[in-house]
Design brief:
globular; 3 helices; 416 residues; mainly beta; five-stranded mixed β-sheet; six-stranded mixed β-sheet; 34% strand; 26 strands
Length: 416
């Protein structure tokens, strides 16, 4: 056979073979690839489900069966702590028991510019060089026979006013109501006159008064007028802009208790008295409390008035060596309840003689007083060696600061 005869024979043989279907082959190959991908996706999904099941089982075991997932917004829950139930009633009013003396340092703290411990500062600026827009607190530094006022700003800086103050009736001339409602001016009673210190300008002013033993000052809400009082005598002093024909000093109805003369309300006897522009008081509300005597000034908020009282023996507040004391918050709205915070003694046990350490912690009458309102919810109270804040909504008591100073007046700058 010749070489040139081979190609015709090969073409003849190829014509007798069946033609392959390439489209069917490609479709079959695609199905095989798709099945492999489905199997891979199914296996991956099964692995993820198994992993989630293992994690959920772990959460169940580790949390004691409570596997609830906390939504993110609950992580920032700022709701008030659980309320404290009242301990009972006194004269028909719910009362709470304050933490016993000696336990103050263990209480939760309310943050203020006063810090953990309020004491005379080591570094003080001149008020002329370090003016304060809002006063947080006022204390007195004794320098021989005179007192120098030290003002604490809401930025926690101290300034000294360029004035020397004399004692009044042998007492330091600082009243709990010394700071004006706007926190810019501080007033001091003096023999025969009234002294004011403007913390925002460093200006010192004096206002002559008729003769009298003045011990207490209380600002009117307009921050333009001050009530100055002594035993049985009181005056309204204009320190800002007055009305047409208004006298700079006008005599008003006084009280045998100088600290009782406060505006816009005062607690005295068994009723709440409202101050009138005429200088008189009118009965606004009545209440029943076992009051033996009132202590300190009355401080008013939009919904109530507060003052501390000393009571006779009370079965609800047993004491061994002192008299019960209570902070009364009397509502000025009939729809809101009045309430009491009672100050008891350290726990001394029963049937034994009190130890000297126990007696040293006892809050004797005169040790405590209301200092003002932190806000509409929290009342500030001075007890022996501490300032506390009583939350009227929850009934809880928190520590504000430990006291290493004598007389103290607080202003609106106490709110940071």
């Amino acid at each position: 056979m010749r070489r040139e005869d081979v190609p015709p024979l090969l073409f003849q043989a190829a014509d007798e073979l069946p033609e392959p279907d390439l489209a069917d082959a490609a479709w079959a190959a695609g199905l095989r690839v798709r099945r492999r991908r489905k199997r891979a996706v199914l296996i991956s999904a099964l692995v993820v489900l198994v992993a989630l099941l293992v994690v959920s089982i772990t959460i169940e075991v580790g949390s004691g069966g409570n596997a609830d997932i906390t939504p993110p917004n609950r992580l920032f829950n700022t709701a008030a702590p659980e309320a404290v139930e009242p301990a009972g009633q006194i004269a028909g009013l719910d009362f709470w028991l304050a933490p016993p003396p000696g336990s103050e340092k263990f209480l939760d703290r309310l943050d203020t510019p006063l810090g953990d411990r309020l004491e005379l500062p080591g570094k003080v600026h001149s008020l002329a060089k370090n003016k304060l827009d809002r006063v947080a607190a006022v204390v007195l530094a004794k320098n021989g026979d005179v007192y120098v006022p030290l003002l604490l700003g809401r930025d926690s800086s101290w300034s000294q006013a360029a004035v020397e103050l004399a004692a009044v009736d042998g007492r330091p001339p600082l009243s709990p109501g010394a700071v004006s409602p706007d926190g810019s001016v501080v007033a001091f009673p003096q023999p025969g006159h009234l002294v004011t210190v403007n913390a925002s300008t460093a200006q010192i002013s004096q206002y002559p008064l008729p003769a009298g033993d003045f011990r207490s000052v209380s600002w009117l809400e307009d921050a333009q007028r001050i009530l100055v009082s002594g035993p049985g005598v009181a005056y309204r002093v204009l320190v800002g802009e007055g009305g047409d024909g208004e006298l700079p000093v006008a005599r008003i109805e006084g009280s045998n208790d100088p600290e009782a003369v406060t505006a816009p309300f005062r607690l005295e006897a068994g009723h709440v008295d409202r101050y009138l522009v005429s200088g008189q008081w009118t009965e606004d509300n009545t209440f029943r409390l076992p009051v033996q005597s009132w202590v300190g000034q009355t401080f008013s908020s939009d919904g109530g008035v507060a003052r501390l009282f000393v009571a006779s023996k009370l079965p609800q507040v047993p004491t061994l060596v002192s008299q019960p004391q209570g902070v009364a918050v009397i509502s000025t709205f009939r729809s809101l309840p009045s309430r009491l915070l009672m100050l008891g003694e350290p726990f001394m046990g029963s049937g034994r003689t009190p130890r000297a350490a126990d007696l040293a912690e006892v809050r004797q009458p005169g040790c405590c007083a209301v200092l003002g309102w932190y806000d509409e919810q929290n009342l500030l109270v001075e007890v022996r060696g501490w300032v506390l804040a009583w939350d009227l909504y929850s009934g809880r008591v928190r520590r504000v600061t430990e006291l290493a100073v004598g007389e103290l007046a607080l202003g609106p700058g106490v709110r940071p």
